[in-house]
Structures are given as C-alpha cells and as structure tokens.
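Thread title: Can someone regenerate the structure for this chain?

I was given the following input by a collaborator and told the matching structure tokens would be attached. They weren't. Posting the sequence so someone can regenerate them.
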Amino acid sequence: MSAGQEPVAPLPPLGGLGFARWAWRQLTSMKTALILLFLLAIASIPGSILPQQGNDPLKVKEWIAGSPSIGRLLQSLGFFDVFAAPWFAAVYLLLFISLIGCVIPRARQHWRAMLAPPPSAPRNLDRLGGTVTLDVNAAPAEVLAGATEYLRRHRWRVVSGPAGTTHGAQWVAAEKGYLRETGNLVFHVALLLILASVAVGGLFGWKGNVIVKEGGGFANTVTQYDAWGGGRLVDSESLTPFSFTLDSFDVDFEREGSQRGAPKYFEAKVTYRDDPAASQQQSVIEVNAPLEVDRAKVFLVGHGYAPHFVVKDARGTVVFNDAVVFLPQDGNFTSTGVVKIPDSEPQLGLRGLFLPTASIDKIKGGQSVFPGPDNPAVFLSAWTGDLGLDTGMPQSVYRLDSESMTQIGLGTLRPGQIWDWQDGSGSVMFTGFDRWASFQIAYDPGKEGALISSILAITGLMLSLFVRRRRIWVKVLDPAGATTVVQVAGLTRSSSLDDIDLGALTDDIDALVREISRAEATPKEHS
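Best answer:
Regenerated them for you:
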C-alpha cells in the first residue's frame, strides 16, 4: 500500500439471506428467462428425434439393441423419456418461476404508471425535437380548454396546471399508449398460461395409436393399443370405456394430371358406444373431422392394405386364415409385412411385399405404380424353423426373425392363386385383401387453455409492437401578452419507460396544432 492511500475496508460477508436475494434476482431477470426458454427448446430436440418410451417402447428396445453402448448411455440420461426426465422438469419449473418473478414486479410497476397522472410540462419544451411555437389570438384559458377537449376526445389522459395563477406558465399534459406495456404483460402472462396448460396436459392427458382392420373393433383399454402413453397422474385402469367397430374404409385417388395418385378423400365409417351399456351410434371419421367421445378424440391418421392368406400344413390342415396388416413404404402403397404361424409343426413364417397395382420389371423387380388396387399382387418368401417367440424377448409383429429358420422358396401370387411349397411342407393361398385404418386416440385437458393462451399471447405481442407510448404538452409562454404564445411538443417512450425517443409524434402534434390554429393562429416558429 502506497503512502497516503487509505486502506480499503473488506466487504461484509454475503450471508445466506443475501445469497438467496442475489440468486432470486438472477433467476427472475429477463436474460435468465430467455436462456431457460432456449434451453427448453434444445432439451425438446431429443424427444422429437429419438423414440420415446411412452409412445413406442418397442422401438426404444430396438434402438438400444442396435447400438448397445450409446443406447444404454442415452437411456441412463433419460433421452428415451425426455419429457418425464428430471432435468427437463427442472428447466421447465425454473422457466416457470423465472417468468413469474419477471411478470409480477412489472405488473405492479405498470399498475402504478396507469394510475399516475401525466407529468407536468418541462421547463424548456423547445429542447424536444419537433416543438411547434405559434401565436394565437385567443385567451390562454380558451386555448388550453380547446386543447384539453380535443385530447380527451381522442382518448388521451389529460391533466392541466398550475391552477389559480395569473402569471407564469400554464400547461396541459396528455399521455396515451398504456396498452403497449399492457400488451407486453399480457404476452408474458399468456406464456405462463401456455406452460401451465402444457403441464396439465402432460400430467393428466394420454394418447395412443391403434390399427383396426375392416370389420375389426377396438375397446379403450391400454392392452388394445399398439402404442400408448399417459401422463404421470393418469390412471390407466380408469380410461373412458368407449368402443368402436370399423365398418368400412373408403378411399379414392386422383387418376389424371400432376396430382395422379394423391388421395381425393378417405373416410372411416364406424359404429361406436360411449360405454358398454349405451346404444350404438354411427359416425364417419375423416382427416379433419375426428370422433369425440367423452372429451377424448379419435383421429384418422393413416390407412393401408391387409392381404388375406390361407396357409395349410403338409396334411392339408388350415393353420392360418386371416388378413394381415402390411405397412406402406411409399406413396404408391408398396407395403411390407410378415405372417407368423407358431402353432404349426415346424413353425412357419412368411415375408411379404404387397403391390396394389403391380408392375414387374426385369431390372427393378416388382413395384407398385398406383396406390389403388388396380392389379394387386403379393411377393412372398416362405421360411420354416424356430420363430424365436419363446426367448422372452419382445418382437415386432412387422418383422420376422429368420436367424434360426430355413428359407423354403420365393413365390408371386395374384388373388385366388395357391403356392405349393416344393418341400411338401404346405401351401399358401392369397385370397384377396381388406383395408385397415390407423387411429390416434387422445385426451388433452390442457388444449383449450393452450389455445386461449396462444391467442392472448399473439394479441399481447401485437399491442406491444404496434402501440406507441407517447406524451404531448401544450404550454402557454406569455399569458399577459397581446397574443397568446403557445408551444406544442411531445415525445414517445419505449416499453421500458426509460429510453426516450425524441423523433416523432409528428402526426399527433400536427393534428393538435391544427385544432389550436382554428382560433386565428399564426405560426411563428417551427424548431
């Protein structure tokens, strides 16, 4: 320490309460809220890319089996159940608290600003850009009264002063544009409501997917779904007990022009019951017209073909007789699927490629050239051996594990044709096809709140962007003179109420000057 320099006193310890205040200020700052919002968006990316346990646990197991080391690491970090992971919930809750801490103080400040009168006129109005000075052949009281009446008529908040003086300045102050900050607050409150609505939907909502063949039915129980996911507080045993049967599925495709192959329409005709004791009702489900049953909605999300096969063993006994769902692979509904027959001896399996409108090419092989069933055919590969169903590992119904099986041969069938296997182990007949429809059934108790909140957020954002907070003053400079010298000036203020923009109230000031000029005013100066 140099001579003459006073020692610097050490800062007092922060303490627990001081640290808590500092942490609260940091958490409730707008910068922190924006960072948390950005982190929430990043945290949602894995939930959109990777399969999720709540929606498709089978795909999760296949993903982990395909990449064991990375898969186990991602599973331990919660990347296969992102929206239920503790780290995602932590970011979500911190953002919620941060927004509350931002909004409440600003709401109080805005409330006080709305109740406060406009500030009195500055001493030197001519320092503001765009100030207009003019002489008016009218009494000061008449000028100020006319200005006051005009401003109030145009929805300005107006005050005047000083009252009861015979000398010195007299003025009128007006303010407008409080909806700018109101819109800003509405936007942030709406964002809070959106987060709350999403949380309600995530905790109490559920959704699932199911494929139903023509003539088949569905009952709203978890075991009936192909994939099902419910919120943390959902009781899967108490789902709404509705059911429906797919009576028929109708679809038609464009056959001419650039839109050839595009669907003209597709609709599912169903018979449903609200509960087991209710009477049957008829309905048609279309893409944008779901069936609503006790606040749950049944959406039509896809469709395809289910070829029908009759399989016989070596003794001629029918071991399989059913339609099998094949999944479309392209826009022309080239579809793949498998048939598993575990009850035969030995076990049998078929891999199939179904072509609604088959075209055979020596180079490209078989392919479908149109999504409609104009020339249906199925290409099959037959396998015999162990299907692997007794290992305890779950299998997809759309994949055939042929590791422990032997291929019998390949065959191509048209409707009504039979393929007898060369080794004499049996035969398969392609009798035709049914159609199937894919439905998503969802219950989201937060969707109405999210919709209303989104509308409020857009409204608030528009108000904050297009409404200007502005002030105008009308001031009498020389009330005792032969003519009344009047100054008119104004300014706009940002939503923070701190940054002053001296640029521009030109339209408002010019309109007010024209109103004052009606009293035989003569412009004197335009600074």
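The chain has four domains: 17-113, 118-177+468-526, 192-303+440-455, 305-434.
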